[in-house]
Design goal:
Radius of gyration: 14 Å
Largest sheet: 5 strands, mixed
Distance between the termini: 36 Å
Number of domains: 1
Strand content: 35-45%
Structural class: mainly beta
Shape: globular
């Protein structure tokens, strides 16, 4: 438990208390970072704009099994799911307004949403 709290504190301090969005040079589109901390997605309900990117930063999870991202329900504008990763990053661009719910199949109850405005 102490390790998870330490990791969470490090992520918050690294973010400086601000949202973790960046804007690539020469672009108005932003990238939002979502972290897997323990068995949770942080932040859980981030708002973004059409054309923005979400980058998931994966850590092993409480059991070391990794995490995945599976969007549900599927629509014609839903990005591709992300297979299980223990470490590393994966990004998806959101091209349409909507609420995109997703889960980690490895850890039941681990879920979040991306809200595209």
């Amino acid at each position: 438990m102490r390790v998870h709290l330490l990791i969470a504190a490090l992520v918050v301090s690294a973010c400086g208390g601000h949202d973790s969005t960046t804007t690539p040079p020469g672009s108005s589109n932003k990238t939002l970072d979502v972290f897997t901390i323990g068995d949770a997605f942080i932040p859980t309900f981030p708002p973004i704009s059409v054309g923005d990117t979400v980058r998931w930063n994966f850590a092993g999870g409480s059991d070391g099994q990794g995490h995945n991202v599976r969007f549900s329900p599927r629509t014609s504008t839903t990005p591709a799911d992300i297979n299980v990763l223990k470490t590393g990053t994966a990004s998806r661009v959101f091209t349409a307004v909507g609420t995109y719910s997703y889960v980690c199949d490895v850890h039941p109850g681990m879920n979040a949403q991306i809200i595209v405005q």
